[in-house]
Amino acid sequence: MSDQLIFDLPCYPALGFNDFFVSKANKLAFDLVKNWTHWSNDRLLVMGAKGSGKTHLSNVWANLTNATFENVIELDFNLQNINAIVLENIELAASRLDLEERLLHILNHCSSNRIPVLLTSNDFSSRAGFELKDLNSRLIATEHISIEQPDDALLSAVLIKQFNDRQIQISPSLIEFILKRITRSMASIGSFVEELDRTVLKLGKSANRAIISEVLDKFS
Asked: Could you give the C-alpha distances from 135 to 70, 82, 102, 132, 164, in angstroms and in order?
């Protein structure tokens, strides 16, 4: 059978409150986000590795607060009539003076107007890694929490969720099979699921042990 054509249709992950799986690795972060009215200085910085769930957690909070959602490299928006704001990937502003100044302006504006701010970063040193001393001071004074390395329960839940997001049917025994062989990180899981999705679409088959093993070999 010849390979089928692949259409790169977008995958829209479920990012609702009830879709977020709470485990030991992220419970403290989840509880802080859920109880956002108690944040010191009305700000929280959530740090964690790529794929650890920061964006999902940010979406949960944005839905709770009707927050504006912005990436730090696209900080060109009107601050008027904003109830709350999510600023993702703040580490990308480091050493870019225009972005650092814009980020500082936003934090100062939000502080003066008691507008809550949720910040995220992949870099655990991002609380004091900027050129502007005033920006470093703001971030050091910001309440912060780290999402820890994923435990077995979280890895399993994320793997199942990503399969569900892509409508890939897979048995519990194959979930266990994958987890025993894959690098234990959220980024690895995301890359694996994406590659498996492309492979089964190309072959026109359901995910089975042989296909999964073939894809896993690419990540070994």
From this structure: 18, 21, 10, 5, 40
Residue that is written with structure tokens 């266990």 in the block: 176
Supply the pLDDT for residue 101.
Answer: 95
d(CA 107, CA 145): 18
Closest CA to 142 of 90, 197, 92: 90
Q: Position of tokens 């692949």? A: 6
CB 53, CB 25: distance < 8 Å: no
Q: Give the pLDDT score at 47.
A: 94
Taking the mean position of all CA atoms in its chain, how far away is CA 36?
18
> Tell me: the pLDDT tens digits for 75-114?
777 788 899 999 999 999 999 999 999 999 999 999 999 9
8-state DSSP, 6: -
Alpha carbons 23 and 45: distance in angstroms, whole number: 19
Q: Is the pLDDT of residue 1 over 70?
A: no
Q: How does pLDDT run across 158-187, given as a tens digit for each residue?
A: 899 889 988 898 999 999 999 999 988 888
Identify the structural domains of the chain with CATH numbers, from first to last. Answer: 26-146 (3.40.50.300), 152-218 (1.10.8)
